[in-house]
Design a protein that fits this description.
The complex is a heterodimer. Chain A is α+β, with helices and mostly antiparallel strands. Chain A contains three helices and six strands; from the N terminus they run ααββββββα. Chain B has one domain. Classes of the chains: A alpha+beta, B mainly alpha.
Amino acid sequence: MTAAFKPKHQRLVLVVLALAAILAAGALAAWALKNQASYFYIPSEIVANPPAADRAVRLGGMVRAGTLKTSPDGVTMHFVVDDGHGQVPVTFAGIAPDLFKEGSGVVAEGHMIDGTFVADNLLAKHDENYVPRELQDMSKQQARQTVAETK
Amino acid sequence: MHAFANPTRFLRIARPLTPALLLSGLAITAAALIYGLFYAPAEQLQGETVRILFIHVPAAWLGMAGWSAIAVASLVELVWRHPLAALAARGSAVPGAVFAALCLASGSLWGRPAWGTYWVWDGRLTSMLVLLFLYLGYIALAGAVQREGGSSRIPAIFGLVGAINIPIIHYSVIWWNSLHQPPSLGWGGSSMAGPFLWGLVAASLGFTLIFAGVVLARMRALLAGIQADARLRRKAMEA
């Protein structure tokens, strides 16, 4: 063969170059979307950059343990959403999803009004941990140990 | 690679392999689903709805694996012009689309009790819906190319370009805040208790065997169609 490259090697180089270009384009697009494609803001972002009261936003984080209180009217609840760096107080009047509880993740849809997040809707966020119900009475530490042992 | 280029040799292997894959896959899937529906424990937060896991996760895996197969077969088709690569890509498209749809439907049914909503436009759900649309586009394009007599390299390019969505689906829950939880299984281990993990492994294996059997069956059907067309053309020439 006198030619430097066989046709199939030329095609391979061409396809690899094209793939690299597509990957780079995808990575750039994903990077550019980094802020827009997020489904919610975390509390420290809301605290650093409070959105205008007329702008509908989503706030996501952990419901801090010990902060969930229900008003005497029975439907309005107050709690604090926390991400470890910032915290935002939230009020919500309505029916919360089953998985909504203290110490677990939540996404609230609503408006930031005078330093309080007034939620129109709550979504519960499940985490990546799957623990059988029989283990729920154990302490967190015990449950984690049991999960590790049965893996 | 070219050991299987010969369709006769491919058929000699695929013919007994197809029922073997389908039957073993059905048996393992049935066992895993019976375990998942009746014997697996309820989850501490999700309760009984955790059982959807045993269909949802294998479906998500195969929806993504199906397109990965299309992408690899398309690469082989474009670079090495392997005669069976186009068939392998086309054979993976319909089962891949079915599993992607199953993943979306089962996840939506789980989302209502767990999250409080059937659907949100977060990164994971949206990119998975895009995958289903890519499948539908690929199936339409590959079918049109076959009917209208275009080059099978056109769907192969589409298959390769569409593969960019696969890492986006995987990393959507890591790059962006999303309602969907991050992966429970990774190279570093699992954050899933044994009773869920092993049921999930068995269900994934069973569904994967079924998937492989269906792909082989579809490749054989496509091959038979091509051979029948060629024979008809020959007869027409002779007449």
